[in-house]
Amino acid sequence: MTLTARTHAAALHPFEAALSLYVRLGPHELNVLRTDLGDVRTHPTRTAILDQDPQAVRLITGGWAGLARTLADGRRQILDLMLAGDVARPSRGETVVALTPVSSIDARTMVRRLDRQEPGSPLARAWRAVQLEQQRRLLDQVVRLGSMTAYERTANLIIELIRRHKRAGLGDERRIPWPITQEVVSDVLGLSIVHVNRVLQQLRRDRLIETRAGFLVVTNLEQLATVGLSCMD
Amino acid sequence: MTLTARTHAAALHPFEAALSLYVRLGPHELNVLRTDLGDVRTHPTRTAILDQDPQAVRLITGGWAGLARTLADGRRQILDLMLAGDVARPSRGETVVALTPVSSIDARTMVRRLDRQEPGSPLARAWRAVQLEQQRRLLDQVVRLGSMTAYERTANLIIELIRRHKRAGLGDERRIPWPITQEVVSDVLGLSIVHVNRVLQQLRRDRLIETRAGFLVVTNLEQLATVGLSCMD
DNA sequence: CGGTAGGTTGAACATCCTCAAACCCTGTGG
DNA sequence: CCACAGGGTTTGAGGATGTTCAACCTACCG
Asked: Would an 8 Å CB–CB cutoff place A149 in contact with chain B?
């Protein structure tokens, strides 16, 4: 029992960790979360994880994905990055695309169960809080794009990713995986690839970050925060 | 009975109209929507309608408001415009500010009732759809700020406002109220006031719009759409 | 009248983009 | 082992887009 629980926990841990910030996960809650999960899949980079089907819901279990819109002229805007533990549920017009090799699991029935929980129950509240957190990220993204310079946007994005990794129990305070190309960053931040490159160089020259071997190391978190948080909490 | 219902309908109509796109509003639903509404208030331009209190919820019944974040350096980003029929519920860090004189009504208990509706019931589904619509606007805003030029952003915003007015049953297809200053537009679109001014002039010179006496008239909707919808549906 | 809020204009400048080329690394096939 | 191809990063130069500052204009309001 504990064993199977632990086994499942290994696969789902980041999502459960997110929920457990708001609710104590007892046997009942774990039952809701772990029963009847769908198929596991892996998605190569650049392929769609979810597309068009409004019913489909998948839980990211590894790798980085992006909620994206593609414009008529071919340009794409990544609206939100999705990491392990995030629930991917695009609405009409959006796609969830694998930015690195991604593993995911069909979470349709689990999410349906969460949505059907008695409103006001602890688990329903936690689920609601997780969704609000996701909404909050969208608002942060609007502020980034609307009222920050390229330098500030980049710093701010890095800070968001550090927080999310810490919250999910992955990576320490100063070092996070950095598996994405500068093109992806440019599609998130609404900048050209070339300019992203120059901004990252500037951040390195200013000794705020280093990038090495698929990781990003923050060498001056305090300074990074003063640059990237001229606004938010 | 019909009379009091009609009276209330006059005040709430835009919100009910939004819901009624997804659910037939029978006596039961109207009872949920119209019972026990809170105090009506009016807010002068530039004052906060909602601030800090995470429990408070107000329904805009007239005027234009904005969901805004204020940055440390004083600059503000308007995340979403809120018109009559929109539910204002800022989370921590945001404020709902009156951009024109606004009238609003305390909708805390009504929203609580909606949230507590049996999940899956028609009214609950409609309420969910309205919230998704709001979320969709946020995604549109991200695309605007992230991957459109000033000219396109402005056209796109105008189109959004036309759609919303039509959907709410206010204003016809080609003429909507335009009660906001260029400063407000600049805070929505992430541009300087001066540049908003020049872009609006350009739109006028290109014979896409006219502005007169507190109204915006679209003189070439087709062209405006090709400019402003290089992406979205 | 004077004051204020909003709109408009010009000039100088900063930021960011585009285009084009070079470079680096890794994997692949001869 | 080398040649080469491809994806990603880096660099430079020139240009488009948008900002800042400062002034002026207009309408409205006391």
From this structure: no
